[in-house]
Design a protein that fits this description.
By secondary structure, the chain is an all-alpha fold. It has helices at residues 2-5, 8-32, 47-64, 74-83, 86-102, 106-124, 134-148, 160-171, 185-211, 216-231, 238-253. The longest helix has 27 residues, at 185-211.
Amino acid sequence: AMVYLIPSKVLYSVFMWTAFLNSALVIGQIFYHNGDSFSASGVLHNASMNGSFLVLCLPFMLSDLKGRWRWLLLLPVVAIIISKSNIAYAMLGAELFCWCAMKKRFWAGFLFLGLIAIFSVPMLGTKFMLDNARFELWRVVFNWWKDNGSVLWGQGPGSFMIFGLYIQKLSGFSLDKGFIWLHNDWAQILFEFGIFVFVAILIMFMTALIKSKRTPWLLASLAGLFVMGCANMPCHFFLPSLYSALLIKTSFEVKI
């Protein structure tokens, strides 16, 4: 409701300056904790989610800031780098590729993807392409769901917090602490709401992509959101979920 009660221009400005302050906080945290990237968790108190959220805001910031103000973009870029998040780096690659593709500069898009991949290896070290047990979690959960769950209608909103822990315990999932979220919002929507709602949301998202095809920053943001949803949980944190809703609303307001 907030995205309709508050003018979009105001919300985007609030998010932009929140991202700047958040970036400054992350940089301060990395110095305070002697380079520990896990502690550079920003306002979301989660380094991976926070870095991903900054990447999500980046296309609008790049589009809105003009002239000498663009040097401020160094703040979120540095904060994203030191977040050391596979997901944040993948989102950045997706956004840059979409932006370049819309400008008919595919070579630049592939170049950015290559550079980000090459940069990620030494930056992430042993964390490079590390899934943190996500793949195993998804396998365990959906093996149970297809045999015991409600595939058409889902288990119900918010139900993964209960069913997920039960399934993990039942399967002997090898973690000291269980996942209370599926770490994939697309998959969690499917689990909790079933195939019908999942398909409806997928159609809505595809429509948003089509309608934003002439607005580079918006299409890039939606591409980043798609990637973020594949391995993180933007719907489960207030700021990313509100910004995601704002992006969808904006895309439906664009005239093709």
